[in-house]
Design goal:
mainly beta, 3-stranded antiparallel beta sheet
Length: 104
Amino acid sequence: MSAPRGTTPTLVLTFTDTNLDLTTATAVYVTFKYGLMNDKITKTGEDLEVEAKKITVSFSQAETLNFPEGPMQIQANWTGTDGFRAASEIQSFNWSRQLLPEVL
């Protein structure tokens, strides 16, 4: 997966576990790790659209302009109603450069 910096992409994390229903989770977090200093941001609550087996995360143009060009790691974490905590496998995403940044 990749997207140019300065755009407004929507990332979709899809899970195949037949027993998973994220709509019953009491908390859902998606963390993004990026850059040489291993900076992190976490989106939760209203920043996410959560369905049974899918989490959708949208970014504003301002947010993507703050990310450096290059790779980013993504991981979802959630807490079930019974207190059970789980995490997804770490996925990769790449921010690419923009060839015509003056139109942003």
